[in-house]
Amino acid sequence: MAEFVEYRAEGMIPELEQMGQIGLFEKHEVRTIVKKRKEFEYKIQRRTKCKEDHLRYIQYEMYLLELTKLRREKIGVTQKKADIEYVIANRVNRLFKQAIQRFKDDVTLWITYIKFCKQMRFYSYVSRTLVQMLQVHSDKPNLWCFAANWEFEESHSVENARQFLLRGLRFHPESRMLYTEAFRLELQYAAMKQKQRREKQEAEEKKNAVGEGSSTSAPSRKESQGISGQTDGEQQETESVSDQVLEGRLAEVIYETAIKKIHDVHFLIDLLAIAKEYDFTAKLQSQMVNYLRDTFSNDELMWDTVAHRELEGLTYIDTQSQEESSPMTASPGTSETNEDTMKNSESYLLKQRIKLCCEVYTAALKQLPTDRMWSLYLEMLVELNEDLTHLPDFKRNLLRDAFEGAHSAGCMQEKYYLLWVDKLKSLGNLKKMEDVLRTATERLPSSVELWQVRLCFHLSRDDEKLGLAVFQDAMARLGSDNETALPLWKVMLQYYQTNDMLKVEQMFQDGIMQQPAISVPLKPLYLEWLVSYKGIVAARKMYQSMCIQPPLCLELHTKMAALESVQSNMNLKYVRRCHEMACDQFGKTNTGVWMEYIKFEQNLGDAKKVSDIYLRAVRNLDPVNTDIFVSEFSLLKTGMTMVQEHTS
Asked: How far apart are CA 597 and CA 578, in angstroms?
């Protein structure tokens, strides 16, 4: 191994000499480079190979390469680049190859190497590396896609990209990712070729325009054939194939193959969304929508997709049946109107698109009157109402009618009830709002947010009796052990604090007698209210009672200690009592209670007590937490020492 390392070191000598000669590095820096490289070489030649050693070596060489470039810019030296930078880059390339050979299973290593090759413009290595990577990782569809994207985007080879995707599909015949990438690739390629053809035609037109005459501006068809060496039949065949590519026929073949393998509405909708990005795919999109309608007529997402296409102006036309009665075959051009002056206006066209969209949803709801279908319809209308620049009343009325329809059908979800209530509130329709909230909480009794809105509605109108009835009904439906019901308790407490202080304490006392989900968070709030309303003495008395009343609450002790600490005449005895109770009840598993006690004595109390608290903590904590506590205490002690030294 030593001989091999020395051999490697000898190979570095010319490069290092060049670094010194042109002044990129000082002699001591060159010696350091030699030393570091030898260390790395020894590590990567060990019997037990370690990936991290290879990565550190590569990282060091990359750093050295970057440093060399910076030094050149700084001192203005440009010579010997091939003898230095190129050699370093080749060394990194060799190190990457060694690492990949030894750690073939590491996908990240392969990808990092390919990115390095791109950075160094070692493009010739990439294609070979991609093939090698896929021989090892043929089970990963994303890598087949990665290879195809590289060939298409970087190498500009659509044939190689196709081959990668087709080979990937042989390994993964039902891979959505590979079919999606193959579909996108063919459309991208078709769009690129169309652009090239347009540019070529424009160039020829310009050339013809500046020519002396049409007879001399371009070669005849016969001359063109003579130049290209193609017969009429060959040229027509070539043009036919080219036209099919330009029209996206290859993408259509991919699509037809994919739907035979994958029967999923989400997948098909993803393909449709890709096709929609290209303006030459109208026929293909129509074919895809036909298949969607025929195959997934019982899927809400299909109807939602078709409806959104109507909204975008991509009107569905059934090329097979042309059924006038179907809302999905309607078209703005088929409806007769005398409002000729409005046909070109933006508002008119938008209104027509919205109508067609809503007709699709209406047809869908007749076939699928489900919660999900109503939610998709409502979501579309909610988004539509976010922009009221055009047709504000028309959009609002549609949303109102949809809210009513979903409500009547019993298919309204919480989100849309809340939105509807908000709309009714803004309109001042309180009677309707009350009715909707009552029905909503009956249909969705587990929705805390709906109960909260309903409770706030009645309390905001000072209807305490009805509000209390709603609160009690909510508790019965939600359950007293449901922690999500806590906001309702807080609403009632806030209301009474504003309107009737005498009932606040009764509410708190009722709350702390509930299940832990409610009582535990209310106990600290009760203390805080007592201090502000009745004073610290009343809070101490209640604390003494609550601190031993199950369920035990750590936040209760923390809150009381904080309240005692902010008193104008702080009594250390009462603060210590809080810390003592916290340590007694939670000191076996919680290191924080001991640390807070120590900090209190160190900062506000008696520092002499710290050692006793420390010993008690070590005796009481379980073994795992004892080690944690000792570490925390050591850090605290170190921090205290540093502060004392700084202030002295």
From this structure: 9
